[in-house]
């Protein structure tokens, strides 16, 4: 047990998970969030009778043994109610063939992909082996990248023979797996992989790390799966927030961190904060858990020597993540009678992948007989940042019309049929989340930046810990919660407080 104060910066799912874990273990925790609510990119907002998920619209890890199920079981709190997505998604390649249904049942999914992609069996078999090996490895709560001897001990205790074998593919891409399995010329399969992998790794098949891609391509199948939450994604952040407050942790909303500095003589951190009324204050902590994009560290530590020069340089050279344009709409369910999935993805010539999330009847997001639809596509943050206000408003309308036209081409929904419609851009996400230029999804999962080659949760500065979608194992609510668990275990170990989350 320790009375030393720990400050967690950022109230997204990673920050909430870290705060709840530390508070439950008796640590003195303060969670700082600049917004008026927690949740971050998994937050929600209301428009009249409609509730919209800001960014994340699905969740993994609610199944028995999944990261969220384990967390809430340990925290002794009911996990959010959700229903399994089956199919997890329909992917329409817009080539005249029927959409590809990603079924929850592994046997049904095997039949589907063999029908859709003849000759690809060896590729999927290899992905399945990698997937099983990766989960066996990850379920031991391993630590990556390895930064010291404690990390190495955790890593080596998680390694199995297959881990070493597939480690030979650590610098390979998903396209390399296609080549190994003699199906690199299957253009339909290539297009399907590009669309799906962009959702989960922000990269196409030729740039997605093989070990990462093989895992996320099979996230929708039992015994794991993707879930749709009752109410909204806010039910996840609300549950974690409740655990934090129950166990004595403090939550300061509308408190924006403006600077952080380490004091080497006392091994402590000073955090400058401004609240919603404009009042400034300073907080002191022995440890700082930083859940914002690591690029934010550069601005918050400018003018002081808290970060070593080589570490600052590495962060400055990180690849630029994507932004997102997101359409939030509401429609009568009479226009959705031909849609049998909550998630639908298709290719649009001038947008790339367009991913639709459709609310369920009675899930609390829309009145009965109506539905919310969220349609998202990746975009360049630099493009939107360079626009003056007048051109920005015009471009928003251009992209809004592009999305409405794309949806009409697939579902025959006329622009006048919408009960509500609005568009968010990277500028909107920058305002909502405080992320630089509105970047989303963390680092692209390339062979050079994923897993053992990414940023460590253990920084080179004593008492500074990182977690979130730029840290292993990557984006998504399950990924950021796993990274928060990893950072908390490392922090607790330095205090002589060994910790493992019960299986």
Structure description:
By secondary structure, the protein is α/β, with parallel strands linked by helices. The chain folds into three domains: 5-81 and 229-319 and 444-494, FAD/NAD(P)-binding domain (3-Layer(bba) Sandwich); 106-224, no CATH class; 323-438, no CATH class. Helix content is 35%, strand content 21%. It contains 16 helices and 20 strands. It has helices spanning 13-24, 67-75, 106-116, 121-138, 149-158, 161-167, 174-180, 187-201, 210-216, 234-246, 296-300, 309-316, 381-385, 389-411, 426-433, 477-494, and strands at residues 5-9, 28-32, 44-47, 50-53, 59-60, 82-84, 89-92, 100-102, 226-229, 250-252, 255-263, 268-275, 280-285, 287-290, 323-332, 343-348, 352-358, 370-379, 420-424, 464-466. The chain has a seven-stranded mixed beta sheet, sandwiched between helices. Strands 10-2-1-14-20 form a five-stranded parallel beta sheet. Strands 5-9-6 form a three-stranded antiparallel beta sheet, with no helix packed on it. A hairpin with a 2-residue loop joins strand 3 (44-47) and strand 4. Helix 1 (13-24) runs parallel beside helix 16 (477-494) and helix 7 (174-180) packs across helix 9.
């Amino acid at each position: 047990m320790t009375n030393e104060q720990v400050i967690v910066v950022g109230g997204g799912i990673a920050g909430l998970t870290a705060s709840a874990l530390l508070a439950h273990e008796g640590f003195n925790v303060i969670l700082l969030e600049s917004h008026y609510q927690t949740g971050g990119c998994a937050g929600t907002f209301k428009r009249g009778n409609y509730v919209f998920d800001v960014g994340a619209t699905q969740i993994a890890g609610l199944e028995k043994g999944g990261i969220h199920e384990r967390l809430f079981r340990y925290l002794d709190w009911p996990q959010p109610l959700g229903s399994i997505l089956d199919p997890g998604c329909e992917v329409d390649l817009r080539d005249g063939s029927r959409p590809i249904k990603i079924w929850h049942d592994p046997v049904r999914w095997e039949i589907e992909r063999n029908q859709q992609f003849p000759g690809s069996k060896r590729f999927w078999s290899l992905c399945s082996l990698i997937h099983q090996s990766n989960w066996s490895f990850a379920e031991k709560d391993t630590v990556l990248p390895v930064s010291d001897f404690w990390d190495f001990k955790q890593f080596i205790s998680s390694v199995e023979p297959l881990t070493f074998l597939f480690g030979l593919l650590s610098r390979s891409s998903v396209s390399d797996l296609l080549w190994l399995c003699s199906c690199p010329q299957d253009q339909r399969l290539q297009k399907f992989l590009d669309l799906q992998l962009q959702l989960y790794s922000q990269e196409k098949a030729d740039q997605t790390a093989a070990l990462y891609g093989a895992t996320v391509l099979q996230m929708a199948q039992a015994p794991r799966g993707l879930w749709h939450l009752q109410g909204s994604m806010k039910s996840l952040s609300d549950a974690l927030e409740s655990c934090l407050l129950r166990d004595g942790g403090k939550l300061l909303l509308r408190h924006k961190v403006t600077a952080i500095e380490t004091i080497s003589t006392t091994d402590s951190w000073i955090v400058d904060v401004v609240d919603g009324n404009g009042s400034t204050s300073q907080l002191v902590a022995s440890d700082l858990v930083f859940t914002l994009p690591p690029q934010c560290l550069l601005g918050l530590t400018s003018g002081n020597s808290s970060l070593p020069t080589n570490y600052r340089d590495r962060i400055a050279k990180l690849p630029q993540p994507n932004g997102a344009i997101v359409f939030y709409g509401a429609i009568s369910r009479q226009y959705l009678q031909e849609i049998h999935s909550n998630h639908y993805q298709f290719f649009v010539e001038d947008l790339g992948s367009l991913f639709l999330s459709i609310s369920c009847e009675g899930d609390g997001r829309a009145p009965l007989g109506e539905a919310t639809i969220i349609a998202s596509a990746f975009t360049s943050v630099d493009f939107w940042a360079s626009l003056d206000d007048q051109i920005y408003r015009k471009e928003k309308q251009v992209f809004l019309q592009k999305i409405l036209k794309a949806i009409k081409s697939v579902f025959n929904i006329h622009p006048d049929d919408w009960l509500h419609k609005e568009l968010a851009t990277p500028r909107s996400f920058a305002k909502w989340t405080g992320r630089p230029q509105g970047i989303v999804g963390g680092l692209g999962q390339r062979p050079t930046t994923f897993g053992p080659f990414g940023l460590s949760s253990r920084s080179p500065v004593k008492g500074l810990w990182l977690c979130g979608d730029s840290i292993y194992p990557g984006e998504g609510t399950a990924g950021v919660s796993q990274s928060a668990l990893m950072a908390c275990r490392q922090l607790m170990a330095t205090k002589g407080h060994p910790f493992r989350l019960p299986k």
